[in-house]
Amino acid sequence: MRIPHWPALVCGLVLAATFAQIVVAAPPGAVPRGRVALAEAIDDSDEEDEDEPAARGYDPTQRVQQLGVAAQGGVPAVAPAPEGGFVPEGAFAPGMAPPQAWPETSPFSQHRIQETYNSGGLWQYETDDNFERKGYFSAEYLYGFGLKPGNHYIGSAQYHALDFFVGAPNVFPQQTTNLFGNFNHNGVLLRTGFENPDESGVGVSAFWLFENRLDNGRVMPHAIAGRLETLTPLASVVLDNGDGTAINAPFDTRFYQQFNQEIWGSDADLMFSPFFERNTFKLRMLMGAKYLRIHEDFYVRFDDSGLGYVVDVPTDTIQLSTITNIGFPNGIMIMSASTTSQLVGPHIGVRYDLGGNKFKLWGQTRFALAANMERMKTYGMNTVQTFQLSNLNPPVTNEKSNTHISPILDTSINGDFPGFALIPYVNQWSVFKNATMRVGFNFVWVGGVARPANIIDYRVRGPLINAGAHTWFEYSAVNFAVNWNF
Q: Pick from 352, 486, 484, 351: which is nearest to 418 by CA?
């Protein structure tokens, strides 16, 4: 007969799985408790064991011992049964429920959060009984850096090879925006929010990098009224006629350019409980919404004396003896452009925390796809050949708006530490009792942004808008903060 082996294998696995496991059980009520005699085939003793009374089975009632009154100096004894076998009322306690083989969870020693994990080969057990939310508020000073205007021709890029004196680009030279570096901004940032006991939470923040200006007023020479010797072949601008030709308009008195920049925005974040956690490190997913506003202005002005003279090309100077009044008035040409990008959309990211209560490094990296609502505007006055400034044309303004999708990358790193506790006298102020210092850095990159030096199309009789000239934008900021926990 073939004997199957699978019962032995299954039973062996069951026994192995239950080995050394604690089991709660109760014996059947009908099984007597007490000593059980072995079979005669096993018992080799000739002595007969005295039978012990078997334990009584489960009794739904509980008998109450009636204690008699002890004699003086004696011990209590069980009172004899009453005469006639009558049992007085109350001799039996109420019935007891049968033992529960699988009792309910103990109401004692239960924590709101219990965690068991293995760290370096050692099992760790942590509990948390804090049922309250933890709030925070911070006020932060920002020192920001906005992206520079970049290198762009001030004039038609298509015809920038057209010099006023052919082969002498240094005389009445064309100008660019390459002079400027990044903008420096002062600003403020406010944050507030709360964290739940499971370390999920909600946070909102808003910042403002105040408007700042860059110009060439201190580095660009200009003529002084009444002093003809200060006139120079200073600058020129190439204007597109729109018919495949262009003009080069020269200026000898002043060339001035200016950029303005302002940035502000806000964020709303919903943080989830950590999906990865160690003793001093944790990662949390977050999602929310972002709003960002970028505003920039570009302004350029050319001044000309209207005088006639001879220019010495090799030395790039004006021969003073040849200066004459040819009947043209002093001329001023002005062109400007402005762009405003308002971006709003959802973002998703991760927050990382490293450290403990005394010192903590934390940061966020978020990616957003935002609707970029752009408004572009150009302005021009007297955008004609210098010799035609007597025929002044009225100011020309053009405006365009469009909406498209722009990606945004926002990342930051911060360090929180009890710095106020280390400053004498300040550490006694109650306002800083629950406050920590914070130092951090934030970087934001935005794609598909219109900037004023990119969109302006230099045309005779007024600049137009090149709405398709998009580029990227970035800004960063160092933050110094006071953070209160409550």
A: 484
- Beta bridge mates, 457: 464
Q: How confident is the model at residue 425 (pLDDT cuts 50, 70, 90)?
A: confident
CA contacts within 13 A on the Cβ side of 339: 29
Model-level pTM?
A: 0.72
CA-based diameter of the chain, in Å? 154
pLDDT of 39 strictly over 50 = no
Residue 228 sits at φ, ψ, to 5 deg, of -65, -25
pLDDT, the chain, mean: 83
Highest mean pLDDT among 141-155, 389-403, 420-434: 141-155
What residue type is 87 in one-letter code?
V
Q: Which long-range contacts (CB under 8 A, 24 or more apart) does 214-221 make?
A: 214/149, 214/180, 214/181, 214/183, 214/258, 214/259, 214/261, 215/256, 215/257, 215/258, 215/259, 216/179, 216/255, 216/256, 216/257, 216/258, 217/256, 219/179, 220/254, 220/255, 220/256
Short-list 53, 48, 60, 51, CA closest to 32: 53
DSSP state of 433: T
Burial of residue 456 (CB within 10 Å: 0-12, 13-18, 19+) is: buried
Domain extents in the chain: 140-485
Which residues partner with 138 through β-bridges? 191, 483
Confirm if 145 and 476 have CB atoms less than 8 A apart. Answer: yes
Query: What would the pLDDT profile of 263-275 be if each residue is shown by its tens digit?
Result: 999 999 999 999 9
Give the chain's end-to-end CA distance (angstroms, integer).
Answer: 79
Rounded Cα distance, 93 and 165, in Å: 122
Residues 105-124: what's their mean pLDDT? 72
Sign of CA dihedral 39, 40, 43, 45: positive
**Strand ranges for 37-182 from DSSP E:** 62-63, 92-93, 113-119, 122-128, 134-146
What is d(CA 203, CA 371) in angstroms, rounded to the nearest whole number?
22
Give the separation between CA 281 and CA 273, rounded to whole angstroms: 13
Q: Does domain 140-485 have CATH number 2.40.128?
A: yes
Contact 412, 336 (CB under 8 A): no
